């Protein structure tokens, strides 16, 4: 399995986000370390930023210089992946890792691959997920226009807590696994065929999106250094 890190230079919420310091190390460092310690055969990074590519190369990661038109705010992820696959090779299983999930570690990558490998479906893909809070229901989803809220699922029944279904969501796309042949065939999506899940604990599912997330991540990282916390979470 080949690791693919997607790390463009631009970011609206946090300028140059992938290189912002987290416990005195670039955010990108944590994904690179997870990849290097995992069972990935090799790891590549695709970026439009010379700074990011230079740093990744210094860490022993193979680099792809991404064209600027594939590094815009609205660039579909699948187009970035297809470009990388065309360079690396189409006869491979890929593990897509985004630097915005710094608490995802090598054990998560290895365990997710075991789930993927043990599925016999001809066409399959995997995504990491986390459980939504117990008080979530489709009924709580709303859109807002000029301060006015409109329920998305207006006909959804309201259940007692013990009768509610358990809902899951992609956790900041910490891990995607797929076969490159399926990606080449697909026009717009990374997840194809049988979509497998790898559930991750909330503490490891943090997605860096706003400046406050950096402070939260530093707090979590320091907590994980504590032996009792580490024993509780590091194998999940």
What's this, in brief?
Helices cover about 30% and strands about 20% of the residues. The protein has helices at about 25-35, 50-60, 75-90, 105-115, 180-185, 210-225, 225-235, and strands at about 1-5, 20, 25, 40-45, 60-65, 95, 125-130, 140-145, 150, 170, 175-180, 195-200.
What does this structure look like?
The protein has 7 helices and 12 strands. The protein is an alpha/beta fold. It folds into 2 domains: 2-131 and 168-233, Spore Coat Polysaccharide Biosynthesis Protein SpsA, Chain A, CATH 3.90.550.10; 133-166, no CATH class. The strands form 3 sheets. Strands 1, 4, 5, 6, 7, 10, 11 and 12 form an 8-stranded mixed β-sheet that branches. It has a two-stranded antiparallel sheet with strand order 2-3. It has a two-stranded antiparallel ribbon with strand order 8-9. The chain is globular.
Q: Please provide the ordered H/E string of secondary-structure elements.
A: EEEHEHEHEHEEEEEHEHH
Please tell me the CATH architecture of the largest domain by its name: Alpha-Beta Complex
Under CATH at level 1, the class of the largest domain stands as: Alpha Beta
> How many individual helices?
7
CATH topology-level name of the largest domain: Spore Coat Polysaccharide Biosynthesis Protein SpsA, Chain A
What helical percentage do the residues reach?
25-40%
Largest sheet: 8 strands, mixed
In CATH terms, the superfamily of the largest domain is: Spore Coat Polysaccharide Biosynthesis Protein SpsA, Chain A
Query: Could you name the ranges where pLDDT drops below 50 across 5 or more consecutive residues?
Result: none
Shape: globular
What is the number of domains? 2
């Amino acid at each position: 399995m080949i690791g693919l890190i997607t790390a463009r230079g631009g970011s609206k919420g946090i300028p140059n986000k992938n290189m912002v310091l987290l416990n005195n190390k670039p955010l990108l460092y944590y994904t690179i370390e997870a990849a290097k310690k995992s069972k990935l055969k090799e790891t590549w990074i695709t970026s439009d930023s010379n700074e990011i590519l230079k740093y990744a190369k210094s860490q022993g990661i193979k680099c792809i210089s991404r064209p600027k038109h594939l590094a815009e705010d609205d660039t579909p992820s699948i187009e970035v992946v297809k470009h990388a696959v065309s360079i690396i090779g189409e006869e491979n299983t890929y593990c897509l890792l985004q630097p915005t999930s710094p608490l995802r570690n090598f054990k998560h990558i290895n365990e997710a691959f075991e789930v993927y490998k043990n599925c016999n479906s001809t066409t399959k893909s995997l995504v990491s997920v986390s459980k939504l809070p117990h008080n979530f229901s489709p009924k709580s989803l709303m859109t807002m226009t000029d301060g006015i809220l409109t329920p998305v699922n207006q006909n959804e029944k309201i259940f007692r807590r013990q009768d509610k279904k358990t809902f899951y969501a992609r956790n900041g796309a910490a891990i995607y696994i797929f076969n490159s042949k399926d990606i080449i065939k697909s026009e717009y999506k990374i997840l194809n065929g049988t979509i497998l899940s790898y559930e991750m604990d909330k503490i490891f599912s943090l997605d860096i999106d706003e400046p406050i997330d950096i402070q939260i991540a530093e707090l979590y990282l320091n907590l994980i250094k504590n032996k009792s916390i580490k024993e509780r979470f590091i194998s999940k």
